[in-house]
C-alpha cells in the first residue's frame, strides 16, 4: 500500500501569470489614484495661493518631501477653517505661555480657554510653517477674531512686539472705530481713527493712487481694506490708516480696477456697488449674481431698492445696538437722503461699508443674466431666490410668507 502524501497547509502557492497580472493592475490603479488625488490637491493648493491666502506658502525648509505633500494636502482641505475666527467675541483674552511648554501643551491649554477649537489644525499649521519650535513664553492678549495663522504668528517672537487687528468685510468705519475702542490696541484711539477716515482731521491723500479722484473732504469709507493688520506697540491711528490704504493699493490690482472700469464704473462707484453687494449677499457664491441684478437695474434706470443703503442712512440703532438696523419700517424707507435707493435712482453718493475682495470681484466680473429681483430664501440661511419678472418675484415673496 502506498504511503499517503500530505501537503503542507502553510506552504505558499506560487502565483501564476494571471494572478501576477491582476496584482500589477491593482497596483497601477492604486498608484494612479494616489497621483490623481495628489495632483488635484496640489491644484487646489495653487488656487488657494493665487487667491491671496497668507498661509499658502512653500512651508519651512525642514520638511521632507512626504511631510510637505501631506501637510499641503491637509491644509488645502481645511483652507476655509484657516480663514475663520478662532472664537466668538471681540474682547482680547489674556493667555500665558509658560517657559519650556511644547506646542502640543500650549494647544491643549488654548482649547479649554475657548481660544482654539481645532488643535490638530493648529499643530499641523505650526509644523508646516516651522513655528512649532518658535512659540515664546510670555503673557499675550489674544483677540478672538484672530485666525489660526494670526494666532500662530501672535505667539512667536517675530510678532512678540506687535498687535494683530482684524477688520471684517462689510464693516462701516464706525464699526471699525468701535472695535478699536474695545480692544484699545497700541496707541490707536477709536475716535482718532474715525476723525481721520471721516476727514475731520487733516489727511493727505496724494500718496495713494486709488484716492486720486476722491472728492475733497470725502470719507475714506470703502477704501479701508478688511484684513488682519499687525501694528507695533507704538502705532497710532494715522499709521493704521496708512497700512489699510496701502493694502488696498496692493490687493485691488490694476486688472481688477480695469474690469470695474470696463463695466462703466469709476473705482469709487465700483466700491460703492461692492459695498452694497457685501451687505446684501452673505454667501460669496451668490455675489456675482446679486451684482448682476444691480447692474441690470442700473441699466434700466430702476431704483436699486437695497435695504443696506437705508440702514447706512438710518445709522446706529439703539434698540438692537447695531449700525445695521433690522426690520426697516415704512418711515425708514421714506427717509429723505441721497443714500435711500428706494427713493433715488442710481448709486448712492459713496460706499456704505468696506467690501472684501470677493464682493469687488463680483462687481468686476458679474454673472451674465436678465434677473432684476431677489428675495431672501426662507429655506436656506443667507441665500436668495432670483427672478426676471416682478410677477415671479411676488410669487417668491408670497411663498416665503406662507412657510
Describe this structure in words.
- It is a single chain.
- By secondary structure, the chain is mainly alpha-helical.
- Among the domains are: about 175-250, no CATH class; about 255-370, no CATH class.
- It contains 16 helices and six strands.
- The protein has helices at about 15-50, 65-75, 80, 105-110, 120-130, 150-155, 175-185, 190-195, 235-250, 255-260, 265-280, 285-300, 305-315, 330-335, 355-365, 390-400, and strands spanning about 95, 140, 160-165, 230, 375, 385.
- The strands form three sheets. It has a two-stranded antiparallel sheet with strand order 1-2.
- Strand 5 and strand 6 form a beta hairpin.
- Helix 2 (about 65-75) packs across helix 5 (about 120-130).
- The termini are far apart.
Layout of helices and strands:
Elements: H1 17-50, H2 65-77, H3 79-82, E1 93-97, H4 103-110, H5 119-129, E2 138-142, H6 148-154, E3 162-166, H7 173-183, H8 190-197, E4 228-232, H9 237-251, H10 254-262, H11 267-280, H12 287-299, H13 307-314, H14 330-333, H15 357-364, E5 373-376, E6 384-387, H16 390-402
Antiparallel strand pairs: 1-2, 3-4, 5-6
Helix pairs in contact: 1-2, 2-5, 4-5, 7-8, 8-9, 10-15, 11-12, 11-15, 12-15
